[in-house]
Design goal:
The protein is an alpha/beta fold. The protein is built from 5 helices and 7 strands, in the order H-H-E-H-E-H-E-E-H-E-E-E. The protein has a 7-stranded mixed beta sheet, covered by helices on one side. Strand 4, helix 5 and strand 5 form a beta-alpha-beta unit. The protein binds S-adenosylmethionine (SAM). S-adenosylmethionine binds next to helix 3 and strand 2.
Length: 190
């Protein structure tokens, strides 16, 4: 029978080992599920979707892309409001891509909505007439030259984050009773 101090030392060593393993494993597991953590998987609040749909002003024939479409909530809601437009969600995270497809299935598999698992910086944006983004400052700045180069007469609506090198044509303030400051929706017309 081992002594009590020895057993405590053994237990402490095991706890340290588990913490160490967790430290090295959490990052690869996070990467597998969410992809690189440059724009965190935070969904657009439901109360903002109405303002986004209004700012996008989707018309029949429009092709709307959500760049980093997460669980697909924005596109699926917009598709209900304008069934004659097409909606494409591009998402890098394996888990969120399949969650969006599952949500599309649960809402009756609308034929005008599709989700692609792809990196937005590598995707072909040329068919888009409207773009929605909720990303981060770095990605916004990387996207600007790509949008200017690949698209024609596109409207971009960005939740929270603005382009550093382009002035918005309109900024919409979305207030919330719980938030201390308004959230901004930046509208750009290229
Ligand atoms: C803040 S969330 C917004 C999700 C969704 N658009 C919404 O409004 O609910 C940003 C999303 O962008 C995705 N993302 C980040 N970088 C990406 C990239 N390079 N290519 C594709 N998706 C990316 C993340 O996985 C995350 O789901």
């Amino acid at each position: 029978m081992d002594s009590l101090p020895f057993q405590i030392a053994l237990l402490l060593a095991q706890v340290c080992l588990v913490i160490l393993a967790g430290f090295f494993l959490i990052r690869p597991i996070r990467m597998l599920i969410f992809g690189r953590p440059d724009a965190p998987p935070v969904p657009t609040p439901r109360r903002a979707i109405f303002h986004i749909a209004e700012a996008l002003a989707v018309r029949p024939g429009d092709i709307v892309y959500d760049l980093g479409s997460g669980d697909g909530r924005v596109l699926l809601q917009c598709a209900k409001l304008e069934p004659s437009a097409r909606f494409v969600g591009i998402e890098r995270s394996f888990l969120l891509h399949y969650l969006a497809r599952f949500r599309a299935f649960m809402s009756g598999s609308p034929t005008n909505v599709s989700f692609l698992r792809q990196d937005i910086l590598l995707a072909d944006l040329s068919p888009a007439t409207k773009l929605y983004t909720y990303l981060c400052p770095t990605l916004m700045n990387q996207l600007l030259p790509k949008i200017e180069h690949e698209t024609r007469k596109v409207r971009v609506v960005s939740y929270v984050f603005a382009f550093k090198a382009k002035r918005p044509s309109r900024t919409i303030h979305i207030s919330s009773p719980r938030a201390r400051r308004d959230t901004r929706l930046h509208v750009y017309d290229f």
